Amino acid sequence: MGRILELVDHLSSEELQQHYRRATDPVELRRWHLLWLISQHWYVKDAAATVGLNYDYARAIVHRYNREGTTSISNRRRGHQRPRRALLNQAQRQELEQALQAPPSDGGLWSSRKVADWIARRTGRSEVRAQRGWDYLQRLERSLQSPRPQHVQADPEAQAAFKETSPPV
Prior knowledge:
The chain is an all-alpha fold. Helix content is about 50%, strand content about 0%.
């Protein structure tokens, strides 16, 4: 058997259910759901398993709610995220788009690493991760280009003869 924790009457069971149903942040949604189930006299262990939380973490949520009230349910990580900022402004992005029309300076094909290096040179950064190069390739609706592999013992004449004698598909 589990343990039933009592909730301080900050909100009624119906109000907890309304907060649960209105929550948009997944962290807050789970917390409201947990509190609503506990207000329905569920065991903490069962309520935690139902909403997918660890038992000790669920108990901590209940204790914090009893101590601090409804403000304790908010997702505190959400406010501490760094704002996302684009590496390239609009002019630099157009410049990259034009650069992608031609082969890269070292020859070959554009890769995420080569795009990241191009961005680093243009923005004056010491390093840009390859993932950011891939992000810009995706934004510009480009795919990662790589040459088609060829076998070292491939015979071009035999392949051409095979194509000529093969039935049409």
